[in-house]
Amino acid sequence: MDYVKGQTLEQLLVASGGRLPLERAVRIVLQAAEGLEHAHGKGVLHRDIKPSNILVSSQEEQDRVSLFDFGIAQDVGADSESVTGEDIPGSLLYITPEQLSRQTSTRQSDIYQLGLVLFEALTGRLPFEISVSAALAYRRESGPVLPEDGQLGNIDLSEGIRAMLKAALCRDPLGRPGSMGLFAYELREVLRKRRVVALRPETRIETISA
């Protein structure tokens, strides 16, 4: 294994005051999604995606992202129960509803966890109170998967990003994006639309005196 110098996303968030600017957060998660898309193409699920398992190395103001700790990875389609025995895989704050109920993990399980990572990178918090009991209750509830904007302090997520996060964090795996490639596409669209807005010329109205 090559040695990669950098810091985990968890460390980067702490050093950045808890959250990242939108474009940087999306670019980091996009690279992670592209890496997971490759792993899925090889038939491997990660199942333990969280900020401490995402390594970010910055060179010339460009972030390079690596995923590690595939310690509980499994083949796509493998029986989660037979792989994990009596242990619930993954870290409890980032565990998926299907892992909690001991159902088979799928590609959508990795999408769910990466959606949690994106939400945390954008807002500096998870969509539930930071406790194991709150995390487990959140996955069993039928209420909203995202807090309202008013509950996020001065952070205002755009309608497009909220829709993307709601889909990724859907408690039913069938309601999430159909593949990690599709989730990566949605992330690229966020960046593309921001570039379009940034490049759009200002509208100037001049008053000409007769």
CATH 4th-level superfamily = Transferase(Phosphotransferase) domain 1
As a percent range, the share of strand residues is: 5-15%
Backbone structural class: mainly alpha
The gross shape turns out to be globular
**Model regions low in confidence, pLDDT < 50 over at least 5 residues:** 79-86, 203-210
**Helix share of residues?**
40-55%
Count of spatially separate domains: 1
CATH architecture: Orthogonal Bundle
Q: Just give the CATH class.
A: Mainly Alpha
Estimated radius of gyration: 19 Å
One letter per element, helices H and strands E, the order comes to EHHEEEEHHHHHH
Please give the alpha-carbon distance between the first and last residues: 74 Å
Arithmetic mean pLDDT: 82
Q: CATH topology, what is it called?
A: Transferase(Phosphotransferase), domain 1
Strand tally is 5
Main sheet, how many strands, which sense, barrel? Answer: 3 strands, antiparallel
Question: Given the structure, what is the number of helices?
Answer: 8
For the largest sheet, list the strands in their spatial order.
1-3-4
Concise summary:
With 210 residues, this protein is mostly helical. 44% of the residues lie in helices and 9% in strands. It has one domain (7-195): Transferase(Phosphotransferase), domain 1 (Orthogonal Bundle), CATH 1.10.510.
Structure description:
This protein has helices at 9-15, 22-41, 80-84, 97-100, 107-123, 132-140, 159-168, 180-199, and strands at residues 7-8, 44-45, 54-59, 62-67, 74-75. Helices cover 44% and strands 9% of the residues. The chain is built from 8 helices and 5 strands. It has a single domain (7-195), classed as Transferase(Phosphotransferase) domain 1 (Transferase(Phosphotransferase), domain 1, Orthogonal Bundle), CATH 1.10.510.10. The chain has 210 residues and is mainly alpha-helical. It is globular. Strand 3 and strand 4 (62-67) form a beta hairpin. The strands form 2 sheets. Strands 1-3-4 form a 3-stranded antiparallel sheet.
